[in-house]
Amino acid sequence: MPAILSVQNLNKTYAGDFVALRDINLEIERGEIFALLGPNGAGKTTLINIICGIVNPTSGTAYVNGHDIASEFRRTRALVGLVPQELPVDSFTTVEQTAAFSRGLFGKPADPALVEKVLKSLSLWDKRDTKIIALSGGMKRRVLIAKALAHEPELLFLDEPTAGVDVELRQDMWKVVSRLRDDGVTVILTTHYIEEAEEMADRVGVINHGEIILVQDKRRLMRELGKKQLTLSLNAPLDRLPATLGAFALELAPGGSELVYTYDSNENRTGITGLLGALQEAGIHFNDLDTSQSSLEEIFVDLVKRPQ
Amino acid sequence: MNFQAIKAIYLSEMARMFRTAVQSIVAPVLSTSLYFVIFGSAIGSRISEIDGITYGAFIVPGLIMLSIMTESISNSSFAIYFPRFIGTIFEVLSAPVSWVEVVLGYVGAAATKSVIIGTIIFITANFFVDIDIAHPFVALLFLVLTSFSFCLFGFILGVWADGWEKLTIIPVLVIMPLTFLGGTFYSISMLPEAWQKISLFNPIVYLISGFRWSFYEHSDVAVGLSIGATVGFLVACLLVVRWIFKTGYRLRT
């Protein structure tokens, strides 16, 4: 069975010679949740819009379920749902009407029971007869998700799905994505909330300046690129590190009352035993210790700051 | 063919028409009634018959055409411009639909509105003057062809416009003058010979003349030529719309 999405050598240059995407290659497996991370202007939305048919690529192509997005656009678009970053909705229609419209537009026969199920899953059923103009921004975002789900996509793009929504709604969204995963829907989401990717994604892709700089299983990424640190709270502050500790990756925290040791937890020998012995020999005593691992956010910031 | 999509767009557009019934239906009927009162009754009573047709009855086909052309352009240009303006066009562009289905949905709904308005104006005109239609099927053909071709023209306008001003500039500065000079209120045979020849370069003359022929068998140009010109305009608009979707002009970046 082909990958649900295969992007091949995709390039996009906008008018004015602005290069938005450079030779993008990406494979998305069926049923996974893929988080596409990148700073503003990195090319995330352009990539999504090309796959959905809203933007024309300059060169290259993409395949959805093995079908070319250009020559077999009917088959590919029928499989793809999009929740855009902005909130473009027809303010004068009702919630139920707009969801039913989306279903029809994507070639599906009317199915009031399915629309009801979708609206209920997004806590929109009570608002089904409300005109969209009367809804809050968060509710409009739910409506956009309902519109995308109403035509039963197999591949769903969520472009910044929780931008500008409150914590409660964000957690509701996470539950929705989790249910979609259970139903076998492949989800590609872009987000500025790295914790969202950390919470939900199976794999993470990082895009910067129009180039995919990394695609990795999330846990593996955090394991391989994440730093682990041991922080020791000293009994007495130090002015500087003794020369005998020069062999260790140690830093003296400002104020001199903490020593921070960075190590790789995947290595057989972390060096912690040796460090503790060397501290003993140097007469440096500590009253507390703590270990921490860098978050996906720290890894992301580190990746996009690296020189190209 | 994605018939569900055509139906969805068509019904959504028709629902918009009924949401704005006063603007969509009442306004054109009111303005046309005023034309009848002013030109048909007040001024028309002082104008002699034209080829045996009372002036009030003579202007009916022209007034129906005037309304159909302006309403067709206005409805279909707004129908596509508004989704572009508020961003909801993304959904149509990302849907499994071809340009044919988009056109049948949007232009079909706009043309339906125009035919409804034309029919209402015809019924309204009957309250002011006695009208007989000599060739009802030809009249219906002109009504449908004109509605569809001017809706297509409006659709092109709605894609081309990148601001509200551009949306109204062509109807106001080009279509309206051509319609008034196209024989809405007179027969071009009433003009000096030089102006008669110049009028033949006005495409609206052919539409109004053909439509009037279907009512009274009176025309300024041959009816076959009128049908040919209307079909030619329709085909030209279709080719432009096809090009728009093929290239993504002002729709896809």
Structural account:
The complex is a heterodimer of chains A (308) and B (253). Chain A is an alpha/beta fold. Chain A has two domains: 5-223, P-loop containing nucleotide triphosphate hydrolases (Rossmann fold, 3-Layer(aba) Sandwich); 226-294, Alpha-Beta Plaits, CATH 3.30.70. Helices cover 32% and strands 28% of the residues of chain A. Chain A has helices spanning 44-52, 73-77, 95-105, 112-121, 137-150, 167-182, 194-200, 218-225, 272-281, 296-305; strands at residues 5-14, 18-28, 33-37, 59-64, 67-68, 80-83, 155-159, 186-190, 203-208, 211-217, 228-234, 250-252, 258-263, 286-293. In chain A, the strands form three sheets. Chain A has a six-stranded mixed β-sheet with strand order 6-7-8-3-9-10, sandwiched between helices. In chain A, helix 6 (167-182) links the parallel strand 7 and strand 8. In chain A, helix 3 (95-105) runs parallel beside helix 5 and helix 4 (112-121) packs antiparallel against helix 5 (137-150). The longest helix of chain A is centred in the middle third of the chain and has 16 residues, at 167-182. Chain A is elongated. Chain A starts with a strand and ends with a helix. The model of chain A has no long low-confidence stretch (mean pLDDT 86). Chain B is an all-alpha fold and 253 residues long. Chain B has one domain (3-247). The model of chain B has no long low-confidence stretch (mean pLDDT 88). The A-B interface holds A 14-15, 52-56, 73-78, 80, 82, 84, 86, 88-93, 97, 100-109, 147 and B 2, 4-5, 7-9, 11-12, 15-16, 19, 83, 86-88, 90-98, 248, 252-253.
Which key terms come to mind for this protein?
heterodimer, A: 308 residues, alpha/beta, Rossmann fold, Alpha-Beta Plaits, 2 domains, 6-stranded mixed beta sheet, 4-stranded antiparallel beta sheet, 10 helices, 14 strands, elongated, B: 253 residues, mainly alpha, globular
